[in-house]
Amino acid sequence: MIEHDVLDAGLGDADDDDFDEAVEAVDAQLPENRYLDRELSWLAFNRRVLELAEDPAQPTLERANFLAIFASNLDEFFMVRVAGLQRRIVTGLALPTNVGRAPLDVLADISAEAHRLQLRHAAAWTEQVRPALAESGIEVVSWEELDDAERERLSEYFQAQVFPVLMPLAVDPAHPFPYISGLSLNLAIRVRNARSGRQEFARLKVPPMLPRLVQIPSARGTARYLPLEGLIANHLGDLFPGMEVLDHHAFRLTRNEDVTIEEDETENLIQALEAELLRRRFGPPIRLEITDDMDDVTLDLLLSELDITEQEVYRLPGPLDLRGLFDLSRIDRPDLRYPPHVPKTAVAFQPPEHNRRADVFAAIRRADVLVHHPYESFATSVQAFLEQAAKDPHVLAIKQTLYRTSGDSPIVQALIDAAESGKQVLALVEVKARFDEAANIVWARKLEKAGVHVVYGLVGLKTHCKLALVIREEDGVLRHYSHVGTGNYNPKTSRIYEDLGLFTVDNEVGRDLTRLFNELSGYAIEKKFKRLLVAPLHLRKGLIRLIDKERRHALAGKRAGIRIKVNSMVDEQIIDALYRASQAGVPVEVWVRGICSLKPGVPGLSENITVRSILGRYLEHSRIFAFDNGGDPQVYIGSADMMHRNLDRRVEALVRVSAAGQIAELTTLFDLAMSPGTTSWHLGPDGEWTRHSTTDSGKALVDLQEKTMATVQRRRRARAVR
């Protein structure tokens, strides 16, 4: 237990220097080994995704989907996180302070755990999910399992649809080893010249534009599929006439695809980004996946030509690249999926009469509106808000941030319509949103052509906050209609991402957003806001002050408590503040989807901290920060995770929720999430996550997302009765 009097008196009124010095004095007394490794914690998150795929209680096609999500997640982890660690080693940069180990040791630990997980992932497919699909009439088979009639029909398909687009590339003195694109699936082929007896090597890329799972015309009454690489492998003789095909093996390469731009050294961000996206294709290799039957001759050639180490080789049972299981989503078998859920219109936005459209502005004028997606509709709230603003003659201006959306999005179209009708429209587009850069450039230019003022934020920072501001003239007075959310303005992901959004006409929020947009589009430097906490200047420090206020309440015998819901909990300063609060007796509850570097339940350090994780049909994406505040709760929602990049290198915003009913709603949600009767994963002090999904007697625990769906439905029915 540390001494607390260093931070007691008057800290809430202390200036920043005094505050920093006081915090540093206390942090020096915390144990050194107090953080969990962030990379291993991320792999533990993906292991939780895998556990859903392994769970026979999940609908069978959803299990296949979780296997595909696991594969996609792991690809991005290697392309970004592992690539970043390797870049640090090459350039001599230090690792983050919470690692505390040699970079090569970190990479070795990642490699060992990733190998274990990929083997477990492959086993989950071959031993669990594939047989479960077969029992339900959906078979993914090998060529050897086909009868003669099926092979004949597939051979016809191969000749008509596949053969014309294949491009075998020989490797010999006249043909150097070809470039292998990242995440492409390939066949390494060895052939022998029938005349000379000379052995040759060839590489064949599996065409990514063709269906990965080829449906087999069958009269068996089942849906049968053959992996495309299996079809190609059994027709190699057609590709190499006059040659004897000796062997073939699938392989797949992952490259460093992170993008780094020195913004202060470039005059045109868009041009620099486009050039960097071209460079991304040629990033260095960081992972080689091969089938477990690959011979040493072929492997040695790949290792030599790709300049990759054996530690970076992942030998797996086929098939490789289980992202292909996303193709199964096209199968019309609702009995093998989660029951359908249609998002409900939030009660405040329900029209007064069944056949009329709701007046979104009138609803917001009556009271602040908190919406919860996808339980409540994005289309009849956020989208309707912007579409009504675009058409309303009293609306003078619309300002909005856009991080990830789509060019055909009704959100983008609403901004175009508003600009074409003569309104002032500002779109702050973050073109550096990872892996969406090219798409964002395309639709940003589309907005510019329509007359929208498009800006790209501040140099050196990503604009990640989710903000929309509508300026409307009412009786000669300008009124601010504000929306602050936790998720992107993306109608597609709004159906699968769990997020929150607050609509308000509160003048303080409106003025805060006006000043923030001015800062983002111009040169204003605004340091203080009323109802917002904004990164990178003040969000971390504001949260630490709120956390420490709870610590002081606990020491004074007042009511205290902290609840935080985030995607990732990594930032050392925030974690240390939570440790200090725990040591003072503050109950701390952390609800995290992904990475957590905080160690809960450590005696003398964090015995008052509980960490839970919930995964399911929806991706838990909202961020909530709640403080008991001596019985006068303060609750914030917004875009920021507790990571260095969010707090130091991004523009993030949290807004304080002020309505008592909405605070109670978020409190109830947290109560359910942290309840021992709810299905969740519990984090131990050793970094191990344990799933709790049934009672001791085997009865299923409550599913938070299903419960929330039922609650929203009940709320809607209650409104209809009134």
Features of the shown structure:
3 domains; kinase; nucleotide-binding; Endonuclease, Chain A; alpha/beta; 10-stranded mixed beta sheet; 21% strand; polyphosphate kinase like; EC 2.7.4.1; metal-binding; 722 residues
What does this molecule look like?
This protein is α/β, with parallel strands linked by helices and 722 residues long. It has 3 domains: 5-16 and 26-37 and 533-721, Endonuclease, Chain A (2-Layer Sandwich); 138-336, Polyphosphate kinase middle domain (polyphosphate kinase like); 347-525, Endonuclease, Chain A. Helices cover 37% and strands 21% of the residues. It is built from 19 helices and 27 strands. The strands form 4 sheets. Strands 14, 18, 19, 20, 21, 23, 24, 25, 26 and 27 form a 10-stranded mixed beta sheet that branches. The chain is globular and about 90 Å long. This is Polyphosphate kinase. Its EC number is 2.7.4.1. The active site is at residue 464.
Rg computed from alpha carbons, rounded to a whole number of angstroms: 28 Å
Tell me the number of structural domains: 3
CATH architecture of the largest domain: 2-Layer Sandwich
Oligomeric state of shown chains:
single chain
Query: Which residue ranges are poorly predicted, with pLDDT under 50 across at least 5 consecutive positions?
Result: 1-14, 261-267
Structural class: alpha/beta
CATH topology of the largest domain: Endonuclease, Chain A
Output the CATH homologous superfamily of the largest domain: Endonuclease Chain A
How much beta, percentage-wise? Answer: 15-25%
Q: How widely separated are the two ends? A: 55 Å
Helical amount among residues, as a percent range? 25-40%
Number of helices: 19
How many individual β-strands?
27
Largest sheet: 10 strands, mixed
Overall average pLDDT:
88
Write down the CATH class of the largest domain: Alpha Beta
Q: Outline, from the CA principal axes?
A: globular
